[in-house]
Structure formats: structure tokens, C-alpha cells
């Protein structure tokens, strides 16, 4: 991999990580803490939606983001020619 291609790969990787961290922060901090009073009227599984996001939702979203990151990085590795054969 040449230097220009390596820089493009790294920028794409950092952009993906920042995007996924913003999503996780929005779900865990935003929905679970900041927006909890707004979500209190919505019921899911016998409790309000804000509490669900704080206790379960942020963990589930985090797991989905981990698998998405692995899938996307495998695809990005193939695109930039740094995949494992």
C-alpha cells in the first residue's frame, strides 16, 4: 500500500469510528439521560422508553455497532487492498 492510499484508508477508518461513536453517544447519553423525560410517556416492555435506552438499548446498539464496524472494516480492507488472504 502506497502512502497516499494509506492516508485515505486511515481517514476512512477515522471517519467511520467518529460516526459510530456519535451514534453511540446519542443513543446512550442522549436517549438514556438527556431525552429521558420526553421518552417517559412511551412504554416498551413494561417500562418507559428512556429507562429502556439507559439500561438495555444503549448496550444493544453498542453491540450492533461493533458488528457493523467489523463488517465495514472488512469491506474497507478489501477496497484498499489490505485484507488478509
UniProtKB/TrEMBL annotation:
NCBIfam families: Na_symport_sm (TIGR03647)
Transmembrane segments: 12-39, 51-71
Residue ranges of domain Sodium symporter small subunit in the record: 7-83
Protein name, entry field: DUF4212 domain-containing protein
Organism: Pseudohoeflea suaedae
UniProtKB keywords: Membrane, Transmembrane, Transmembrane helix
Keyword Aminoacyl-tRNA synthetase recorded: no
InterPro entries documented for this protein: Na_symporter_ssu
Amino acid at each position: 500500500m502506497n502512502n497516499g492510499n494509506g492516508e485515505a484508508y486511515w481517514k476512512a477508518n477515522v471517519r467511520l469510528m467518529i460516526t459510530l461513536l456519535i451514534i453511540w453517544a446519542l443513543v446512550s447519553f442522549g436517549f438514556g439521560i438527556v431525552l429521558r423525560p420526553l421518552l417517559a410517556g412511551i412504554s416498551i416492555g413494561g417500562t418507559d422508553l428512556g429507562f429502556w435506552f439507559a439500561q438495555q438499548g444503549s448496550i444493544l446498539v453498542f453491540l450492533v455497532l461493533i458488528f457493523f464496524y467489523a463488517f465495514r472494516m472488512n469491506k474497507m480492507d478489501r477496497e484498499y487492498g489490505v485484507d488478509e488472504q
